[in-house]
Design a protein that fits this description.
The structure holds two protein chains of two kinds. Chain A is an alpha/beta fold. Chain A contains 16 helices and 24 strands. In chain A, strand 1 and strand 2 form a beta hairpin. In chain A, helix 13 packs parallel to helix 14. Chain B is built from nine helices and 15 strands. The interface between A and B is medium-sized, with 32 and 36 residues.
């Protein structure tokens, strides 16, 4: 039996790295086919090939039994394929109707000239909105809509272009629970219209509610395609995480000291809910979860970057009902930011300034910055951390690994006692990684407490004493080092619960 | 309060708590952190304290009688001290450990804190160094002394190692090289370490960074033979990468003050 959509033996390489290996994928009309897999498994690449963003190196695509060579996004659109990306692709300053009909506005003749028939366009838009039961005014600017509403406008835009295959990449990221429910209702309506929906996600729980079929992609290979009714979450997680984890992380077991940080019923804007945990001197606490699980928000609430929060933070027994970075810093906290954000460093300033900026008192005499002291301390830190750069090097020219070390250096310079480390190893070379883990060891040996926020599950298991797995703003599970496995973490991070 | 009074007070705290914290002290005496740092500098010069990240610890060595042994191997003492410190952290209570001849193991003995340990060694200097440590059982293998060293080797050594089991063996090597693997100074020493490997649960290599890309006389084994290696931060990057990718834990030392 031929399927409505078939992708056969799709292979794709980027710079010599094989990202897709002989993938066979199919879908039928009126069907929701989910694709799941870890970050970087190849899910999105496979779908971008279907959407015409790049051609496969080899393999064939058939639609309705016809072999097609998709030579670009425009061609894919003509073939009835639409992709809805994670990030919004609408024009924020245009209104709903304008976005839906852009470049193909309905025209009417007025004597000798043709003008856009806005009345018709609005009417058409309203018809769609009404069909899906959406309470949105077609004349509203898109920038005034919520992330969820914007998704719906993109879906309507696809439908109005006669799409019969709609690909949704992680559509529920950034959506509220109500919007997610509404999206599922819309997807069910799409099925009734005979539309094929391909649904990329790593939230296994969600897929159970909406998909008919599910395919698991791991390391560029399609591992298995299953009927959703004949599989369960454990089987899917196992397929997702098949690879062996080597225990290559230089973990040092350190005797922990007294309690240094306690968090009680911490909530912020529905993004984190009712968080409770404790942290002792010399302990490494891991916080992990999927992209929008709330782990990043939690880290930023602790350091006072976002707020105000509900609940309490206790540092050394002292209660705080609000937090800001200055208060956090003078109470011994620091935030080692990820290098891909702009949070941690002043890119156009030299390394020495970046290192000493956290503790100007230490390099000042009589209120003036002592350049010799600045340079002395900066050189000292550069040597101690083996950063391998010159103190006058401008930050923006440094590699990822060096930048991360500079961020460490600047907080070491204040003698912080609680390090919140955001994505310790993301975007840095292996040598720097090994160095960072050993720097963490040295810190815990001196009684410093570490909170490691990471989406790298291996690293979390390798380095942490205790692991908080977050989902949807909540702590789903607390695992200790001995009992943590990649499968367990993936299970709870995807919304799984204890039976 | 005069500076001298403050210094004495800090000494008192150090004696009682074994460690002090710059921020806590500055709050306690209502002086700036810079002042406290200068105080700690003075105490370090006196030999009373050792500065650490964010503070200082009591220099316990001042209370121990100085060793009458001059350890023969004097290369890179600072680097090996740091290696010894990390290694000592790996030792847990109630374990039996083996310490091979070499500077890093010699330094390790000074940091041993764990309780109820059994230490097996074929190095007379290491055994002597441990003679005053409470709660330790030290077993010295017999054997033939290698001339002008404190290392015991030979048939007698091998015999004493029969029928005992070791939790963690700490091995100093003389050379670490991609082609030659781990190397030691003589075939006799290799025979002892091979025997140790048979009777040990965990096998931990120690080498300061100058030992990398260097080959000594006799081969112990390939670089993948041990699952843990302790060295310094200056180790060549290609080794850091190699060990991580091979799933071998590489511990390096950093020191913050």
């Amino acid at each position: 039996m031929r399927h409505f959509l078939e992708m056969k033996n799709i292979t794709k390489q980027f710079n010599g790295n094989v990202v897709l290996k002989n993938v066979n994928f199919f879908a039928d009309k009126g069907q929701v086919h989910a694709i799941i897999g870890e970050n970087g498994a190849g899910k999105t690449t496979l779908m971008k090939i279907l959407a015409g963003l790049f051609p496969p190196d080899s393999g064939d695509i058939f639609i309705n039994g016809q072999r097609v060579h998709i030579n670009g996004p425009k061609h894919a659109q003509e073939l009835g394929i639409a992709m809805i990306y994670q990030e919004c692709r609408l024009f924020p300053d245009l209104n709903v109707t304008e976005n839906i009909f852009i470049r193909r506005e309905p025209l009417k003749k007025l004597k000798f000239i043709k003008i856009i028939d806005w009345a018709k366009a609005h009417k058409e838009t309203y018809k769609y909105l009404d069909y899906f039961g959406l309470n949105i005014n077609p004349k509203t600017a898109v920038s005034n809509l919520s992330a969820g509403q914007q998704k719906f406008i993109e879906i309507i835009k696809a439908l109005s272009q006669n799409a019969n295959i709609i690909i949704m990449d992680e559509p529920t990221v950034a959506l509220t629970e109500q919007e997610t429910e509404l999206l599922f209702k819309v997807i069910k309506d799409l099925k009734k219209l005979g539309i094929t929906v391909i649904y990329i996600s790593h939230r296994v729980e969600e897929i159970k509610k909406i998909a008919d079929l599910v395919s698991v992609i791991r390391d560029g290979e399609l591992i298995v395609t299953k009927d959703i009714n004949t599989t369960n979450i454990h089987e899917l997680i196992k397929a997702m995480s098949g690879k062996e984890v080597y225990d290559k992380y230089p973990k040092l077991k350190v005797k922990t000291g007294k309690n240094i940080l306690r968090v009680e019923n911490l909530s912020y804007n529905d993004k984190i809910k009712n968080i409770n945990f404790e942290l002792s001197e010399g302990e490494i606490l891991g916080i992990t979860g999927l992209t929008d699980s709330g782990k990043d928000v939690l880290a930023r609430v602790l350091f006072g970057i976002v707020g105000p929060f509900q609940g309490k933070i206790y540092i050394n027994g002292k209660a705080f009902k609000s937090m800001d970075p200055y208060t956090a810093k003078i109470n011994g906290l620091c935030f080692v930011s990820a290098i891909d954000t702009e949070e941690g460093l002043i890119s156009n300033m030299p390394t020495n300034v970046n290192i000493t900026i956290t503790n100007l008192q230490r390099i000042s005499t009589m209120g003036f910055i002592d350049n010799a002291a600045e340079s002395y301390h900066a050189r000292d830190m550069i040597e101690r951390l083996e950063i391998g750069c010159n103190e006058n090097d401008i930050i923006s020219i440094l590699s990822g690994g060096k930048k991360k070390k500079v961020i460490f250096a600047k907080w070491l310079f204040t003698n912080s006692k609680i390090f919140i480390i955001d994505e310790p190893s993301a975007g840095i070379d292996i040598c720097s990684k090994v160095d960072i883990y050993n720097i963490i060891n040295e810190l815990v040996l001196s009684g410093t407490a570490i909170i490691m926020v990471s989406s790298n599950i291996e690293e979390i298991i390798g380095m942490c004493d205790k692991i908080l797995v977050m989902y949807n703003g909540e702590i789903r599970k607390v695992l200790d080092r001995e009992h943590a496995t990649e499968q367990k973490i993936l299970y709870y991070a995807s919304g799984g619960k204890d039976d | 309060m005069f500076a001298i009074e403050r210094l004495n007070k800090i000494k008192e705290i150090l004696l009682k708590e074994k460690r002090v914290d710059v921020i806590e002290l500055s709050q306690l005496f209502s002086v700036t952190e810079v002042t406290i740092r200068r105080d700690l500098d003075k105490l370090e010069k006196e030999g009373f304290a050792i500065k650490t990240y964010g503070g200082a610890v009591l220099n316990e060595n001042i209370f121990q009688q100085s060793s009458s042994f001059e350890y023969e191997e004097k290369d890179n003492i600072e680097e090996n001290k740091m290696i010894g410190k990390i290694a000592a952290e790996m030792v847990e209570d109630n374990e039996a450990i083996y310490l091979s001849p070499g500077r890093a193991c010699f330094e390790l003995t000074r940091h041993l804190k764990s309780k109820n340990l059994t230490v097996v060694t074929n190095d007379l200097a290491i055994a002597y160094e441990l003679k005053n440590k409470p709660g330790l059982k030290v077993i010295v293998t017999g054997g033939t002394l290698i001339h002008s060293t404190t290392t015991l080797v030979g048939e007698f050594t091998l015999q004493t190692l029969n029928g005992i089991y070791i939790n963690k063996a700490f091995i100093n090597v003389k050379g670490v090289d991609f082609d030659a693997g781990y190397t030691l100074g003589s075939k006799e020493e290799i025979m002892i370490i091979e025997k140790i490997r048979e009777i040990s649960k965990e096998f931990i290599i120690m080498a300061d960074y100058t030992k990398f890309n260097r080959t000594s006389f006799a081969k112990l084994g390939n670089l993948t033979m041990a699952k843990k290696i302790i060295t310094n931060k200056q180790v060549p990057p290609e080794y850091k990468k190699f060990f991580f990718e091979k799933g071998i834990k590489l511990y390096t030392t950093f020191e913050f003050k």
